[in-house]
């Protein structure tokens, strides 16, 4: 199942690409390693200005797909586009506008964080030599490494190494940022910093692709998702729409559970008592196979049922991910 991505969900931020523009595109991408099919004919469009969370179990093909989009791995079949340029033919024109942290950062262990970042900055074609020092200082401060900037890289913790890799991505404004497991090794404060940085990039109109196992973080930061399973794309689209499609009915909060159930069932609706914790109010769940919600609420009120709240049931990303990636029986 593939859901066509929606690009008209929310107003575009200032400076964002026009609605309908695509930052990255995969067209029938396939990658084989010997007899193993890592990516199997994926078609995917990443809307410009979106924050796309790329999800999937280990071995689902996320990193291989990202590497093909960036021109780091040549596909067995299919094609890719990056910022409107064909890959790999136009990769040299696209990559200066792309910041990527893929499969962990790689730096010289004997140099300090600042020295490593300066070396990276000198290879940025869009960064002038006179701008390097300020760009490095700003990036280090932005990721919380200003105080550790002059320590040798070999003494950095895993989280500090990850922060330095993120700083390299942030040396200059980008049109597209790709982050492969950006919170790997980070403590809660570091994870919050990554969330803040992604929000800042999104507000500036930058397209962000995030590959992550932390579903709560993806749900908090992403506007779109692409879910991979065994090398195939099983769903892609606007996160809000996908979660709404997973809704299971109407949830009605009331202290009159028994009366509500009798009334709803008498009207032909499928209704059952909702599971709850000790801190939650009692509620009933009504399936979508009966009368419309306004009619049900009116019937309950006429029957003397006190309706404290009525809302659509909403699945979360963890539940949606489990449904999409569960193995068939």
Automatic annotation (TrEMBL):
Domain ABC transporter: 24-255
Keyword Transport annotated: yes
Transmembrane segment boundaries: none
Family label: Belongs to the ABC transporter superfamily.
InterPro entries recorded: AAA+_ATPase (IPR003593), ABC_transporter-like_ATP-bd (IPR003439), ABC_transporter-like_CS (IPR017871), P-loop_NTPase (IPR027417)
A UniProt-annotated Pfam family: ABC_tran
Single GO term (MF): ATP hydrolysis activity
PROSITE patterns per the UniProt record, alphabetical: ABC_TRANSPORTER_1, ABC_TRANSPORTER_2
Keywords: ATP-binding, Nucleotide-binding, Transport
Protein name: ABC-2 type transport system ATP-binding protein
Domain of life: Bacteria
SUPFAM superfamilies: P-loop containing nucleoside triphosphate hydrolases (SSF52540)
